[in-house]
Write a structure and sequence with these properties.
about 200 residues; about 40% helix
Amino acid sequence: MNRRDFLKTELLLAATMGGGVLAASLTQAQTPDGNHRTNIKTLLIASHPYPERSIINKGLQKAAESVEGVMVRNLETIYGFDTRAIDAQAERDFTREHDRIVFMFPTHWFNITPMMKAYLNEVWGNVGPGLWQGKEMLVVTTAAGGASTYGETGRLGIALEDVFTPMQASALHAGMKYLPPLAFQSVTASELPNYQQRLIERLQS
């Protein structure tokens, strides 16, 4: 997906807010019902290159924050867009304290976001193999493209989940177990509650 399509999708999703779908879903996600918890100490690293336009990923972050046992760190909220500002030592300390690391981001030109790439460079890049031995990695991503782009019959000929094979390589290099990604494609704001529920279920499993 190119930048123009990415921006177009974000604007369309923002327009859907007028119907109240997003407002209701975000309110629901902000209110833990007491059943949302995980026994796995989880660190979720969230990133979005255009946070002011974020609809789906913002809603997913709210859902993640409703799960007890999940610590959410949004890179743009903490560091802005300065890739040199990332505190590598502090981020490594947070990672050491958790057993499952979740990376959540919108698919950005068939890749992770710039800040997330910088995060991996700074936090993971200067340490050798086996850095996070025994931990788990889960990738959560969203994309505007659907069957015409992804899958055997799509333009790419591969599933959205398989676009992020470099993340799997990173996990294996670090000694982690790479969990099946949670990938949402052809995203629409009206389906946000469903996406949130699926994310909560994965975080609890």
